[in-house]
């Protein structure tokens, strides 16, 4: 006697038909020589011609240089936040109500994911590259790029990786893909490691990999992708914007940046009233996101010659922003939970401290500090008038240069140019973990001080240009101003050279090509020396230029000629008109 249809068990095919394999769905009741019920229902030809292969990742034939148990996606070395730490949870934190003698809540590392056996299921990231290479890239991102591009909350990200959240969350999968793309773009020296990690698997070139990553990302987007937005959807184009810029594809970078800016405005990253209802983690992420996109805004404001790029803020909107309210909390991610923030007692700076100092520098380049809602605030009026009055514009730039000069006077000793006091480390910290910490804080110092010098140099360029338009070139006042500014330019060049000689190359590379271009901009300013060829100032300038040339030969890893400030697109309608004439 057979069971009634409602009670019959669904029979899955031992081998999926070609149609079901392409659609990545379960094959029902099919086997070679018959038709599955899905193909019958859809009136499709049911075939079994596609070759089959063993399921799951292949067995590893060699020992990885970094085991999965050692991978730390928390921005700190694994030994500092290991799950086995006394009284800690899975993110290594001492929980309220626990004592140092309490057992840990988990003995498994968040990165010790399942699925390493040959029979494990296929990973969602396999369309990008094998999972073990993805994990290695993510580890490098957290160790090298997170201090500069903090678009994730470390404990949350670790848990999401540990639970394979990307298998059912396409937005998180897109974020992983973008993080892999940007680490390949920003840190070229690691790409050989990725290519050699799995013998027999080819990643192609860095350019090929980033193109492939973006293609995989686009395949995840449906027609209603932008109907729901999130911080992750903002972070994805932000990372790809950087990745394409690093391989010299400026036009594609511009277009992706436009998507990033639109999402930032829709999320209201610049508007504190829009943060209502967000938990502490999301609030911290969005504040960091605001400053990341604000960096791009300042770049375009002070350097974009063609003015063809869309800007994140207009002058009127800029006046409404309260930078102090938008400053992220000066604590590590491990101290921030959805419902509370645990105060950190360590007197030494953390990674967020360095990030916030950079925010101060970028803000000082365009505006004075102050709360726009405070009566009697020192904030200046809208800068729209500066475009009509050159003298007012020059006065504004001069005030920005003055404020910027002293912005970093009171920073912690660990983050100063010379860094006399190293970051304190536990006696149990391994040499590898010490190297990671050294690289992270070295990258922060490099970014912070080179950006500080570069912005001051750019403002000097603007003042020189404005002075030439508003003052007679032969007037005594103009000549005195020229000498004073040149002395300041020389001082900046000397500071930068000393800084570059004191930073390890491994701390410079995470700053990528932006770092080299800032150094070049400072060096280019020395080519306009206003004194005679044999004047001591000209001789010193020539020496600085030679030194910068040698340094740039090591720093600039551009694979193509960078044409950021040139027109790199073709207006086909205009070209057709010219040919018609």
TrEMBL record:
Residues 16-48 form the Zn(2)-C6 fungal-type domain. InterPro entries: Carb_Metab_Trans_Reg, XnlR_reg_dom, Zn2-C6_fun-type_DNA-bd_sf, Zn2Cys6_DnaBD. SUPFAM superfamilies: Zn2/Cys6 DNA-binding domain. It comes from the Eukaryota. GO terms for molecular function: DNA binding; DNA-binding transcription factor activity, RNA polymerase II-specific; zinc ion binding. PROSITE patterns: ZN2_CY6_FUNGAL_1 (PS00463), ZN2_CY6_FUNGAL_2 (PS50048). Residues 77-123 are annotated as: Disordered. Gene3D superfamilies: Zn(2)-C6 fungal-type DNA-binding domain. GO terms for biological process: DNA-templated transcription. Residues 111-122 have a biased composition (Polar residues). Keywords: Metal-binding, Nucleus. It holds the Pfam family Fungal_trans. Transmembrane segments: none annotated. This is Zn(2)-C6 fungal-type domain-containing protein.
């Amino acid at each position: 006697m057979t069971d009634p249809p409602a009670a019959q068990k669904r029979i899955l095919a031992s081998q999926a038909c070609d149609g079901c394999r392409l659609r990545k769905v379960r094959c029902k009741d099919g086997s070679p020589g018959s038709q599955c019920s899905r193909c019958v229902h859809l009136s499709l030809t049911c075939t079994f011609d596609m070759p089959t292969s063993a399921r799951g990742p292949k067995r590893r034939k060699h020992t990885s240089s970094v085991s999965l148990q050692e991978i730390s996606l928390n921005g700190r070395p694994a030994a500092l936040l290991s799950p086995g730490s006394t009284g800690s949870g899975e993110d290594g934190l001492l929980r309220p109500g626990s004592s140092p003698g309490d057992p840990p809540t988990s003995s498994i590392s968040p990165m010790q994911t399942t699925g390493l056996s040959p029979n494990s299921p296929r990973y969602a990231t396999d369309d990008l590259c094998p999972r073990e290479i993805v994990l290695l890239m993510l580890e490098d991102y957290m160790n090298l790029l997170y201090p500069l591009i903090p678009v994730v909350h470390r404990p949350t990200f670790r848990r999401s990786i540990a639970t394979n959240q990307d298998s059912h969350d396409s937005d998180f999968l897109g974020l992983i893909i973008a993080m892999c793309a940007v680490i390949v773009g920003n840190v070229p020296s690691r790409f050989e490691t990725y290519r050699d990690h799995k013998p027999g698997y080819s990643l192609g070139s860095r350019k090929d990999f980033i193109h492939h990553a973006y293609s995989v990302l686009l395949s995840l987007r449906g027609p209603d992708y932008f109907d729901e937005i999130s911080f992750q959807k903002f972070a994805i184009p932000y990372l790809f914007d950087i990745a394409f810029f690093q391989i010299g594809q400026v036009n594609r970078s511009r277009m992706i940046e436009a998507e990033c800016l639109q999402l930032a405005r829709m999320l209201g990253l610049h508007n504190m009233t829009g943060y209502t209802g967000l938990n502490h983690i999301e609030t911290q992420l969005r504040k960091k996101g605001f400053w990341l996109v604000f960096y791009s805004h300042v770049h375009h404001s002070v350097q974009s010659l063609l003015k063809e790029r869309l800007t994140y803020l207009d002058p009127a909107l800029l006046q409404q922003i309260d930078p102090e309210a938008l400053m992220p909390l000066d604590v590590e991610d491990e101290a921030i939970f959805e419902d509370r923030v645990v105060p950190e007692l360590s007197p030494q700076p953390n990674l967020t401290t360095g990030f916030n100092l950079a925010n101060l520098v970028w803000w000082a380049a365009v505006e004075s500090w102050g709360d726009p809602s405070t009566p009697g605030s020192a904030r200046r009026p809208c800068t729209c008038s500066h475009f009509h009055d050159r003298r007012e514009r020059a006065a504004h730039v001069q005030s920005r240069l003055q404020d910027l000069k002293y912005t970093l006077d009171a920073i912690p000793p660990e983050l100063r140019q010379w860094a006399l006091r190293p970051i304190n480390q536990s006696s149990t910290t391994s040499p590898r973990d010490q190297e990671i910490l050294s690289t992270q804080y070295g990258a922060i110092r490099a970014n912070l001080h080179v950006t500080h010098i570069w912005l001051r140099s750019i403002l000097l360029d603007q003042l020189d240009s404005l002075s030439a338009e508003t003052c007679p070139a032969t007037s005594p006042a103009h000549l005195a101003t020229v000498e004073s500014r040149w002395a300041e330019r020389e001082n900046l060049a000397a500071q930068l050279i000393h800084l570059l000689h004191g930073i390890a190359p491994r701390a410079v590379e995470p700053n990528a090509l932006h770092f080299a271009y800032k150094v070049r901009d400072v060096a280019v300013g020395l080519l306009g020396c206003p004194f005679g060829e044999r004047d001591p100032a000209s001789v010193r300038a020539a020496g600085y230029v030679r030194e910068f040339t040698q340094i740039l030969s090591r720093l600039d890893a551009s694979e193509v000629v960078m044409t950021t400030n040139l027109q790199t697109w073709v207006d086909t309608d205009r070209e057709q008109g010219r040919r018609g004439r």
